[in-house]
Amino acid sequence: MERDLAQLNVALNSVKVLRSNVRSVFESVGNGLRADHGDDGKENKYIIELQELLTTVNNNLRDVENAVASLTPPPGAFSLGNTTYLAQETTQERQALYGQLVNSYKWTDKIREYSALAGNILQTNSFNKTYKTLSTTKRRKTQTSNHNVSPEVIENLITGIDRLFPDVTITTNRPFVPNPVVQASLGRVLKSIIGFKGLMIEWVVVKAHAEASDQWSDSRYKVFQKVTENCHAAMCHFHSPMMPDLAVRSFMHWFHSYNTLFSAPCKRCGNHIHNNLPATWRDLRTLEPYHEECK
């Protein structure tokens, strides 16, 4: 048993070395001729370097083949427990259960791994800050978290935004009480699904009016995918834990400028269409439209 584990360890290390050297080959090809190759005969130096890397990869591949050949094949099929009975189902719908079960296990393992990494990162970063004035060392009163607010406060904020922009149609539902999901429509141009976490915007998806109004799928149109990416950037730009209501109003004021998405030309090149797309970026200060390549 120990011998089999040692051989398996050797095979895995051989694969690791092979992958590392293959990555070096792709990096060399991607970088091309470099300054350290000099001016005289730099093409020949680059070719010699690439040949050496490929020879190393060839030797590593031979080591992997030898290591795999030395492994002892399993005596029989692996025991899968009661899940083996899933393959005996006669209905086509139930035959696919085993594949879904395997995917769910993989997904659970990834969640466990990412959760452990996130926990380590949060432990090393303290979020407790002591605010001091110039004249005293007394701590300020702890402020209420922007996530833990009453539904009435959030509703008043949304109502104020609705009054601030009469040409924006806003509808609200609360699938995750008390945090609302707001659908804001800019006339016939587009609609957005905005998820709130207390007084803070947590997620934004922009879609066409004909698409489904769900928060979990992206638009199938490239133009609205670009607008969604820009909304995420603006959401981070306007984020303000000290003044969350102002941050939301500033974001909505910026978002309102997209009512000219298909009619306003680019401020830099003056064209309406570039690379088959309109000006999908709005300046965060001036709200002027720009193409992605022109901003």
TrEMBL record:
One of its GO terms (cellular component) is mediator complex. The keyword Transcription regulation applies. It is found in: Nucleus. Keywords: Nucleus, Transcription, Transcription regulation. GO terms for biological process: regulation of transcription by RNA polymerase II. GO terms for molecular function: transcription coactivator activity. PANTHER family: 34 KDA TRANSCRIPTIONAL CO-ACTIVATOR-RELATED, MEDIATOR OF RNA POLYMERASE II TRANSCRIPTION SUBUNIT 27. Belongs to the Mediator complex subunit 27 family. This is Mediator of RNA polymerase II transcription subunit 27.
